[in-house]
Amino acid sequence: MAGELWMVVALLSTVLSNIYCGDDESGPRFRTEPPFRIEFSNSSGAEIRCTADGIPPPRMNWQNREGANARDIPGIRYMRSDGTLVFPPFAREDYRQDVHDTLYQCLASNSAGAIISKEMHVRGVVQQKFIPQVYDDYVIRGNTAVLRCHLPSFVREYVTLDSWLIDEDLVLKSTDIEDDKYTVLSTGELIIHRVDDSDGKRNFKCRARHRLTGELVLSPTTGKVIVTEPHSPMGPRITFSQSQVRADEGSYVRIPCVSTAQPAPEYRWLKETSSGLFPVIEDHRTRVTSGDKRTDTVLIVTAPLKVTVIPEHQTLNIGETAVLNCSVSGHPVHTVTWRKDQRHLAANSRVQLLSRDVLHITSVRREDKGMYQCFAYNDADGAQGTAEIKIGDVPPVLLITHFLDTYGPFQTLSAISGQELVLNCPVGGYPIKSITWQKGGIILPLDHRHKISSTGYLTLQDVQKAADEGEYTCIAKNPDGLTASGSTYVSVVVAPVIDAQYFPDTITANEGERAKIICSATTGDPPIRFKWLKNGFPFVSTGRVSINLLDDSSVLQFRKVQATDRGQYTCVATNAATSTNMTSQLVVNVPPAWTAEPVNTSAILGSSAWMNCSAEGFPTPSIIWRKARESSPGDFGYVTSSPRIRQYNNGSLVLWDVELSDKGFYLCQANNGIGAALSKVIFLNVQVETAYNKSADVPFNGNSHITGSSVQYKMADDTWKGHTSQLIVSGSDSTAILRALHPVTTYHLRVIAENAIGKSRPSGIINVTTQVEAPSGPPRELTVHPTGDQSLKVTWKPPREDARHGRIQGYHVGYRVYHSSEKFQYKTVEANEDSELHSTYVTGLQPFTKYEVIVKAYNVAGAGPQTDSIIGTTLETAPPTSPILQVIGTTSNSINIRWEKDSKDRSSITEYTLHYRHDDSMWQTKKLRSTTDRYTLENVKCGTRYQMYLTASNSLGTGEPSPSVTTRTKGAAPMPAPQNSFVTLNSTFVVLHLDGWQSGGCPILHFNIQYKAKYQNQWTSVPDRIPANREKTIVGQLTPDREYIVMVTAHSEAGVTQAEYKFRTLPLQYSSESTSLPALVRREAELPFHRNVTLLIPVVVSSLVLIIVIFTVVVCLRKHTQDRRGQQEYDSQKIAADSLLMSEVSQKSLSGKQSINGSHYSSPTRGQHQFASSKSGEQRRTDKQHEYAEPYTAYPSSRQRSDEGSFATIKRAPPRSGSMTSAYKTGFS
């Protein structure tokens, strides 16, 4: 009774401890979360830490932009054991955009839930040399000058201004509060207020710092402020402003506004509010440092984002309501999204977003348990908050059916393929010595995916349907050798996987076209249900947009795409296992449409003229202005920007100080490459006032009338000797127009005046850089190649260097059906400065159709001339799509497969090719007829894993291969024979019965045998392979009464099995003459007596023993003559007993069933364990009607225990008193 009470107490404590551990479980939370943005140079590398807390401690991982695990790439990227993602320094040629310029997220998960970090933008930068430059600025005395530190575009994003040096002495930094003279902006510009002649004598240099490497570079040349004299009154003109200024909340910000005018302009600031414009009042926080011209600047004030989900912890009972509030601080906030256990949260009738910040869950279910996260993002920052929902359990009710029962029945379990499964062995009783697991009679673990804890938990990592589905048995053993077992069936369900090949990240369609998004599940147990979301909310089909369901696919089809269809579309595929989803961005291209259509305009000579022109569309249309070269509209030339002419970002064209030459026809064109460009011609009329006054300062003429002036100019790289051009103007002219200059070229200019006395000295040199013009030449070497029945590949080279007129920003590729009246459709391709050859694919074309293709280059000034058109023809059809391959059955030497052709593929197929191989072999191929859809692959290896895939071909080539499938032929590695039937013992040899081994379904090819004495290290091998058809073999020349180990290795196509057998040879005196020796032993008897060691040694030893015995008997007889009679009786009895004992041992040695009643063997190679049936010394329960497995109480066995691991052993019992007999106990080892 006391023992039973103790077991009840142990059972109660175990149950209560499990309840406590469950309540103590908590989901992961980040202790160190990666930043929103990380940038590093290739010379330094980067280490990004990510740590999380939780109970149990969470596992850490990283994923990339596509959601795949960021696997280790030697020398490029790896993850340390503490969760740190490491990017080691790399060479320039090792740069990979998919690794060094992408998004990453850190993942943490444990049994309570999973969380994911905010997006981390990683950018690795290849270090490049750079040289900052400072150029001169021309400014009227008393106005404001702006000097810029010019940086190459390829480093501009990573290099910031460190300081300005004035005459190598005064150092100004952007952190300095501006004084009355100088202001340094955070963007690097140096503003010089109230310029006078002394400013023109100073030299200015800038020093730039690479913020990733810390490298400081000083500009090699100096910039100067060229101070000019005002000659006449001039209205204000804004020369420098910033359309957008960003500043952190609480920081100091400067908003520049610089203009030029004569006299010097006055400034007035206004702030736009919801009620209108109000003057900016100076106070201790706001100060106006320096119209009537107006410019607008948007001030964006940012504050770090912080997200908190309230409440952070909730424990709810099933059926209650959960509410989570996402509190976001900081600004701006562009998007707010929710996730559960790392997955995007899909709203439904029960899980709803009442607003962007409130998540409401009605009638909580058990699957709602887990980690919930709210994410907030803007362009420069991101943050997330985490909350955990726990489900409260009903208090347990203990049901004691038997004091020694296990405390929980096994049930059929479901596991999800690719995930982790943990099995518990609910065993009761005390004490428990060991818990083992079997699957299909094979002892686990089988491979690295199986983990068994000391407490008996079996963990299956990366569950696979083919390998892991089946019955699992838990066996518990106590120190007395008693066992209890229970079984459960694990059913592996395969989660749906959406085919990313048909579900791209981005789908682009023009307005009015047809489009479709295909959501196809390549794997997953049926039935699979599909659901669509748009921007995170359930999407319902309309008359124009339909959802079509096929067998394993769902197609979202747009009959006529509209701009309102733009957004993110998510397909959610659900089956009994789980749900998975993928999201695609639908981009709708919209041709341009007027928002401010240009109209005819009039302006007074000398005033300003505004011509508005703006359009909307997607992509945003570019606005280009042109002016008719003649008095009538016809030949238009590009309008280039100058100090007097400026085109704003909104498309408006502004002319200051209008001249009579500005009068004429202007063309505004809006184009975004979608459809036909939008354009309109307007007329600018310049009106002249009836009278006006104009004064000018006449330069000193040397007291002699100036008869003429010579304007000399050359390119900056040329010398004044031999490369100078000049323009002669009359003495009455003070202006000159230089023509036939090259665009984007720096010129040096000087003027020489002439009167009756002679020529003056040259004036100071003026540096002038001409503006950018549209390319004057077309791209070169245009070619077109068909790549399919609906696509063409277009390749070309940039225009000649002298015809580019600035950096080429991209190309417009136009195409249309040959000889059709349709307008060209254009595709815009960005220029790649690192490559001389450019290419793109034109898709969505008609099969076997001729297309006319042109290309033209464009820069910031507009597009250049187009190439001559070239003709390309699409293919009649394309190589077929390979079908989906399935394995429908296997035998030990054949594999049955079938396949199904893609119903959407209308291409003809001439043949299929099956590609297959087994592990560690080369790929083999088999040609199959196109008229069949199934095949049996024969003569394959037994019990072997095979990989195979299928390709389809026609006259145009071979399509992409189908996804590979893996299968295994039936059969297993050999199964060892039980020791009691495998080994027959003798004193100097043993007989091994090879026919006791089982094939496992695959024929055994041969055996290898090795043996050694128990305490020796070196094995002795039987020289030859033993064929599988030999029933038995002999291991001879053994020492009597000594322990040996024989290791037998059996080979088959399915694998190799090793088993060890331990035994002790019989003592020599126990060998019976009646023992029937095998043929090999009989051969030894036929040897001559003096060469037969087996006979010679026993004879010699026996002779010596006989002599000693006789001598001892004689001595005893002489000393004890009075006891001779009693001694004779005693000797006769002893001899009779010895003879009887030897006879018994000889008989038992040759009886396998009597000599060994129980055995245990194992294969170390395959981890197999087999148990022989026990005949005595152990009781096992056979009542299968009871739902619990019970270890029975029994008296302890008297046999010796030995921990021999998993090797097959024969256990020897201690010697019995009064006898030399060796007996073998039955039972499990």
Automatic annotation (TrEMBL):
Keywords: Cell adhesion, Disulfide bond, Glycoprotein, Immunoglobulin domain, Membrane, Repeat, Signal, Transmembrane, Transmembrane helix. GO terms for biological process: axon guidance; dendrite self-avoidance; homophilic cell adhesion via plasma membrane adhesion molecules. It is found in: Membrane. It comes from Argiope bruennichi (Wasp spider). GO terms for molecular function: cell-cell adhesion mediator activity. PROSITE patterns: FN3, IG_LIKE. It is a single-pass membrane protein. One of its GO terms (cellular component) is plasma membrane. Residues 1-21 form the signal peptide. Residues 677-773, 778-877, 879-972, 974-1068 form the Fibronectin type-III domain. The chain crosses the membrane at residues 1095-1117. This is Down syndrome cell adhesion molecule-like. Pfam families: fn3, FN3_DSCAM-DSCAML_C, I-set, Ig_3.
